[in-house]
Design a protein that fits this description.
By secondary structure, the chain is mostly helical. It has one domain (35-180). It is built from 7 helices and no strands. The chain starts with a helix and ends with a helix. The relative contact order is 0.13. Keywords: Membrane, Transmembrane, Transmembrane helix. The chain crosses the membrane at residues 49-66, 78-100, 121-141, 153-176. This is Putative membrane protein.
């Protein structure tokens, strides 16, 4: 009886994946068993970038304590602190953008499950890092740019809104697109757990 239940669960998953990707049923119904395990180089790179990010934030906090850092640059409505923050923001955003592909590889290596689910989760993780980088860029560059725009400050917000919208839209689509396979996976896990309890 348990074997029949498991067979039916696998058939349901296979039918769904076949309908979603008819040309790749053979390769997409399996789990990620052929990808490399967590690679030390990827983990080292992510750790290094995270430490660099923390160091930049701490450095910016120390710079903000310097005497006169809040004074305006001569002939400009921008403060020295705003300029320093802009430079740190650019470096920080660059670190996050370079970190995004490594996060995707790490998630792909760390998760075990159907390829469709793993790919969707890894893509969402990568785009979340990109989205966070865009939000940080908007907040960090604003003190150095908005004062120069006078009454056109809304253009600054509009530019970053248009920049942040595509990754957010893709994240929303990936979440929606992965609901069915994740529900199938959850149902299979629950069924397998109940079968295990019955066997005991």
């Amino acid at each position: 009886m348990n074997v029949i239940k498991r067979s039916e669960a696998n058939q349901r998953q296979g039918r769904y994946l076949s309908a979603r990707h008819p040309d790749s049923t053979a390769t997409m119904t399996g789990n990620y068993t052929d990808h490399n395990a967590l690679d030390d180089r990827t983990i080292h790179r992510i750790g290094k970038l995270l430490l660099a990010t923390v160091a930049l934030v701490l450095l910016l906090g120390l710079v903000s304590l310097l005497p006169g850092i809040d004074r305006l640059v001569p002939g400009s409505p921008v403060t020295f602190m705003a300029l320093v923050s802009a430079v740190v923001t650019i470096v920080l955003v660059g670190l996050l953008i370079s970190l995004a592909p490594a996060v995707k590889r790490l998630v792909t290596s760390a998760l075990d499950g159907p390829r469709l689910v793993v790919d969707d989760v890894a893509t969402i993780a990568q785009l979340l890092v990109v989205f966070v980088a865009i939000v940080i860029a908007h907040r960090g560059l604003a003190p150095a740019i908005v004062p120069l725009l006078d009454g056109l400050a809304w253009l600054y917000d509009l530019a970053f809104f248009l920049l942040a919208l595509p990754p957010l839209a893709v994240i929303a689509w990936q979440v929606y697109d992965s609901l069915d396979p994740m529900a199938e996976l959850l149902a299979d896990r629950v069924t397998a757990g109940e079968n295990g309890d019955e066997e005991q």
